[in-house]
Amino acid sequence: MKTIKRYSPVQFKATPAKTETRDNWDVVMEYDSEGDGPWIVDLSHRLRLDLQCADPESKQPFGMDIPKIPCQSILSDGVLINRMNATQASIYHLAGGTAAMPKENEYTDVTENTVFVAIFGNHVFQICEKLSNLDLSDPARQAPFLSQGPFSHVPCQIVTVSKEGTPGVVLTCSRGYGRDMIDAILHAGKEFGLKPAGEARFTDWIAGLYV
């Protein structure tokens, strides 16, 4: 059987220091010069699912409950679940590795259809403020929480994963916006020293946030 090569919609102008091939994706684990943060990490190879049904709260993807209130999120054991509206939820597998697709037909794998990046470290919210009017650091909301709306004029899902310690967000949008979205984020973050980082740095960060 012919192997189908899978390509990320995200391309950084940086030199990889360590890479892995995983499920036909080339994954950068570390770049030559990542600096002290903030960082942007390409996670487009990590499993993302869209769930649509009349009663999402009746489902338990990866053994987890789905939040009942729109824009609430739950992070546990490396899985992030976001309630979008009355009939829809998104599921991000942040822990990496292999994850089995749920068997119910209400789930759609959107991994290869979308961009998925993490932005974390000091000044992350100042960077995001340049690109969106969404209040991603809303003091009245407890992280993690979902925001839906324009980011660099593109419809996005943005989850504020952490507001304390090392703050950060994950962001997803349609694959076709990949190049322009990354250019806009890096331009907005230039004054704060935003640099591409490999998956290993993200893994260390997210592991400390598991509930």
List the helices and strands and how they pair.
Elements: E1 16-22, E2 25-31, E3 39-42, E4 48-52, E5 73-76, E6 79-85, E7 88-93, E8 107-109, E9 114-120, H1 124-129, E10 145-151, E11 154-162, E12 168-174, H2 178-189, E13 195-197, H3 199-207
Parallel strand pairs: 3-13
Antiparallel strand pairs: 1-2, 3-9, 4-7, 4-8, 5-6, 6-7, 9-12, 10-11, 11-12
Task: Write a concise keyword list for the protein shown above.
5-stranded antiparallel beta sheet, 13% helix, 2 domains, mainly beta, 6-stranded mixed beta sheet, 36% strand, 211 residues, Gyrase A, domain 2
Explain this structure:
It is built from three helices and 13 strands; from the N terminus they run βββββββββαβββαβα. A hairpin with a 2-residue loop joins β10 and β11. It has 211 residues and is mainly beta. It starts with 15 loop residues before the first strand and ends with a helix. Helices cover 13% and strands 36% of the residues. The model has no long low-confidence stretch (mean pLDDT 93). It has a six-stranded mixed sheet. It folds into two domains: 111 residues, Gyrase A, domain 2 (2-Layer Sandwich); 62 residues, no CATH class.
